[in-house]
Amino acid sequence: MSERLLDILVSSIYKILIPCLKMTIPLTLIVFAISLVLAFLLAMVQILNIRGLKQFARIYIWIFRGTPLLVQLYIIFFGLPSLGIVMDAFPSAVIAFSLNLAAYNAETIRSAILSVPQGQIEAGYMVGLSHPQIMLHIVLPQAARVAFPTLFNSLISLTKDTSLASSITVVELFKTAQQIAAKYFEPFALYCEAAVFYLIICTLLTWLQSWLEKKLEWKQPLKKGKESYA
Amino acid sequence: MLEVRNLYKRFGENEVIKGIDFHVNKGEVVAVLGSSGAGKTTLLRCMSFLEKADQGEILFDDFRKDMRKVRGREIRGLRMKMGFVFQSYNLFRNQTALKNVMVGLTTARHMPKAQAREIASNMLEKVGLLDHADYYPDQLSGGQQQRVAIARAIAASPEVILFDEPTSALDPELTGEVLDVMKMLAREGTTMVVVTHEMGFAKEAANRIVFMEDGVIVEEQEAKAFFASPKEESTKRFLRRFTDAQAAETKPQESTI
Hints:
The structure holds two protein chains of two kinds.
Chain A: H1 3-47, H2 53-66, H3 69-79, H4 89-114, H5 118-126, H6 131-161, H7 173-184, H8 187-216
Helix pairs in contact in A: 1-2, 1-4, 1-7, 1-8, 2-4, 3-4, 4-6, 5-6, 6-8, 7-8
Chain B: E1 2-11, E2 14-24, E3 29-33, H1 40-47, E4 55-60, E5 63-66, H2 72-80, E6 82-85, H3 97-108, H4 113-126, H5 142-154, E7 160-164, H6 172-187, E8 192-195, H7 199-205, E9 208-213, E10 216-222, H8 223-228, H9 233-250
Parallel strand pairs in B: 3-8, 3-9, 6-7, 7-8
Antiparallel strand pairs in B: 1-2, 1-4, 4-5, 9-10
Helix pairs in contact in B: 3-4, 3-5, 4-5, 5-6
């Protein structure tokens, strides 16, 4: 590797790290948080069978899962201004990603709630719990554990998908790498460097996931010297 | 104390309960026997409103109402006075054994935590599982889970406890520990309705036997008389099949090699 290329790569670590910390990661976290709230609402109106809202949720999910994320980004950032709705790139990205991810996460949450066996709910009734109490203390905690790996998976996907925001002029990790690549005419090296950044974030997330999954297990840690629970 | 009159229940075309009058008195242990599909479980589930009866009247202490017209809040009030032990235990998987026993006291009945914890500990001790208080259901054997479920059912001192085939899902070597706990409760004068296939338990612990077939109660007798001198032909057939099966079981096993 030439000394010039090495210099470019090393000096761009910092240049890419800044938008990574200031844009890619906050965008990911904000979008994920909003999508979870929306997804939970979309799932609950279906589970609780709320007339009107349930149909709305189905149509919403149908549309946002059935059209490409990139197209949704374009519609919101480039399309809406022609209807008189003008937004900066960042809020446009937040809205597009959130709406899109909510559709997927809603299905994850809905199926996780439905996976809780009916017997758990009946047992809740028979110890005297009300329906909301059963939801809060029995069903949702169990559903959360079922949904967790899939939701975390969508967080990891989202981290990488935020690179699409570069296409609507958000200067995030990938956009910065693009700019540096153009400046020095070194696309191969710079795009690989960007890839390594995503790989590092996703690796850290994967570690976080296994750690959290252990924490979420409904198991008492085995006492030393004990071989089985029973 | 708890009674249903003229109970009817169908699932689609299938008429499962065809006009049943059933009652249990305070301090009494009633065993409900009968072949699979006789409607025993459905009877229990209708009494606890886990199934909606098509017709029937419920009388529980001074509460008396058409079962189709009992409202949600009334159902919850009635359930507060019942305990229910499920065939598949149905312990809350996200809670430890202790929390399983506590939740009906704290969350449903607003009892202070410390007091609930003490009661729950006593209940677990009673079923011999105090040392497993911090274990989650998945870490317990079937027999242990069912004993915790019984502790959960008795924790709020209900007036009656309904057992829905409590040992049917258990390996044969685990049924004993559960039946022992149930016998202990019976000796203590707990009011119990037990749907079961365990003739030994019915013989030993029940005061009265209700025999069901094809959605109706065929015979109802004091326990000793039921086993000594069954009246109905179908009861005799049922009991004979059981004694035959038992005889086969106790025969020395032939080598399969």
